[in-house]
Amino acid sequence: MTSSAALTAPIGVGIIGLSASGGWAAQAHLPALRAVPGFEVRALSASSSASAKAAGETYGIPLSFGSAEELARRDEVDLVVVAVKVPYHRELTLAALEAGKMVFCEWPLGNGLAEAEELAAVAQAQGIRTFVGLQARSAPPVRYLRDLIAEGYVGEVLSTSVIASGLGWGAEFPPGGEYLLDRGNGATLLTIPFGHTIDALTMALGEFTGLTAVLATRRRQVRNGATGAFAPMTAADQIAVGGVLEGGAVASVHFRGGRSRATNFHWEINGTDGDLLITGGSGHLQFGQAFVHGAHGDDTAPTELPVPASYSALPRLDRAGTEIWHPVAHAYGQIRADLTVGTHVVPDFVHAARRHRFLDRIQRAAAAP
Predict the structure, then answer these.
(1) SS3 329
(2) 20 to 30 A Cα–Cα from 308, which one of 61, 115, 181, 196?
(3) What sign results for the dihedral spanned by CA atoms 262, 271, 360, 193?
């Protein structure tokens, strides 16, 4: 689209990986796109022409293709959304970039640092706008928390602590969940819930300047919840990272696989003048299902700080921020604004590569003698 047309014309979207049988594209991207004015889902591609046709009929999408290349070449498509398993991100994202299309790729951007840096370099060389699905930073509770800190609610930040559960990577896995157990697939406790949450933490408090890390796989055999059969797990189910943030605050972050009978998400920020706390049902902060509490000045205990309505400018959302796709919708709202007025609020592939470098840094620190 030309810059003038972008001010008024809908952005035509093609989704790679939208299946009639469900999945993240159907659960999150499709309802999010339909909730945000200025987008039209015009095309989809799936693993075969037959499955693409079935998805098109299920969701009422006019164009369906059996390959990503066909989708990316269509003039009706301005923005390609890559919502497939991590090992396929590189191949399908490159197809979209080679067609000159803007790309929104799910997080993690690639299967490891090298792939992420390659995709960022290709997009930069071609001057193509890109976006990555680190939507925790778009969730209203996280943006509100960031602003409270910036406005001095806690004074100078002294320390921050996170303890969280990944839900997956525990004693059992659901049918089809074997893919997440193999660290070679790039979809792990480290890359998914930890990666999303650490991106939000650093947005609010600054990057790590120094760190130590422990990665451990405490459960090496886990059970299929449907069949009872056991499968090997090589992905870490325990992640402990400690370090110092920009500005000097001390940070401690512990993610563990499965679900705790006690605490499943507790993020505390302690300062010279107050304290903030964000809680939720799991370490998947990218789902946005979190609550902000605070205490400062003469307060003796934290109380809930409801997120102001101004943090949600999407009137089509059917419930007040409780659906897991709502942060994705907020990200798309920010993308629409970025493309309309030329801002760069939503993280791009360069940011994604930077976050991959941080995860690689954690792995190297954990492997050090």
Answers:
(1) helix
(2) 196
(3) positive
pLDDT in tens, 29-51: 999 999 999 999 999 999 899 99
- Give CA separation, 360 vs 52, 96, 109, 186, 188, in Å: 36, 26, 13, 12, 13
**How far apart are alpha carbons 183 and 363 in whole angstroms?**
12
Distance CA 68, CA 47 (A): 9
Which string of b and e fits 277-287 if b means at least 16 CB within 10 Å? bbbbebbbbbb
C-alpha span between 113 and 306 (Å, rounded): 38
Tell the burial category of 355 from Cβ atoms under 10 Å away from its Cβ (0-12, 13-18, 19+).
buried
CB 242 within 8 A of CB 251: yes
Work out the pLDDT band at 321, boundaries 50, 70, 90.
low
Whether pLDDT at 362 is above 60: yes
Q: Report d(CA 268, CA 166) in Å as an integer.
A: 18
Q: Which stretches within 294-367 are classed as H helix?
A: 326-341, 349-367
Beta strand 11-16 with 274-280 is unpaired
DSSP conformation class of 99 = T
Burial 69-78 (b: 16+ CB within 10 A, else e): ebbbbbeebb
The pair phi, psi for residue 109, each rounded to 5°, is -60, -45
> pLDDT at residue 2 above 80?
no
Residue 317's pLDDT is 74
Q: How far apart are CA 24 and CA 84, in angstroms?
A: 8
Integer Cα distance of 159 and 194 in angstroms? 19
Q: Model confidence over 202-257: pLDDT tens digits? A: 999 999 999 999 999 999 999 999 999 999 999 999 999 999 999 999 999 999 99
Strands 79-82 and 11-16: parallel
Output the CA torsion sign for 69, 75, 77, 78. positive
Question: For position 320, what pLDDT does the model report?
Answer: 55
